Amino acid sequence: MRHYLEFERPIADLEAKIEELSALSQSGGANLDVELDALRQRTEVLRRETYSRLDPWQKTLVARHPERPHLVDYISGLIEDFVELRGDRKFGDDQAIVGGLGRFRGQSVVVMGHEKGHDTATRLKHNFGMARPEGYRKAVRLMEMAEQFGLPVLTFVDTAGAYPGIGAEERGQAEAIARSTEKGLTLRVPVIATVTGEGGSGGAIALAAANRVLILEHSIYSVISPEGAASILWHDGSRAKDAADQMKITAPDLLKMGIVDRIVEEPAGGAHSDPEVMIETLGNVLEKELQAMSFLSPDQLVEQRAQRFYDIGRKGLS
Q1: Which positions fall inside the CoA carboxyltransferase C-terminal domain (predicted)?
Q2: What is the CATH number of domain 60-311?
Q3: pTM value?
Q4: For helices 56-63 and 226-234, angle between their N-to-C axes, nearest 10 degrees
């Protein structure tokens, strides 16, 4: 059964009506093809209109939609011969970050990202995509291997933030995030990061210190969640919508400020409405981005990446 957000209720009502009439038509009760075609067209128009005018809070809800494609879906749809590599060689393995080797459209790559999980069991296994220090140290290990063998790195960002538990802090959460960010900034191979859902705080940027940072149309990228910002600013987490409106966390605002480099269009109704199309679309974009960087030397890659981050904020202010 599909999960509908509150603002999608009118769409849900129409789709329920379509299912009801389809069942009636298939049972031989009546020929309702004309009525069904009209309802489907009406639903498609309503879906496009609804998603063309989403406010920042609604985009936040879409970014968190449980049916959006996750890392495992992108790996399944884009990466051939994927071999997962586990562990940080210091403490253990953190399944909030999944990564390994594979082939992307014929090219060997290292791929990694946050995995939130799709159901209760996998969400617990992956800790809802909130990584511990060993997850970020695993990311560093994979980036070092990519550099050693001259392999491009593709990362997929989708996390509310790094895990804030006591154990994580005892094992050096802040240091691990900083080391992962540092390694991303200094890699001598192409790095492309894509924010596929929500990109929360340092836990996100640890995998997004890249030459090119892409973002899906209805994803968000922020230093803190709207709920967290509302709690700090107004001591009232229920004002998350107000915070989202002020934080400039949506793709167009991020592009204007130079925080992201490209917006990847989602299917009408969001990535969750047609995951296969979303995965194929992102794959085409990633292929073009990799081709564009194939002519850069290692020194040029490092220099371009550094300049990209130096320029953040200046683009929107000029």
Answers
A1: 31-292
A2: 3.90.226.10
A3: 0.89
A4: 130
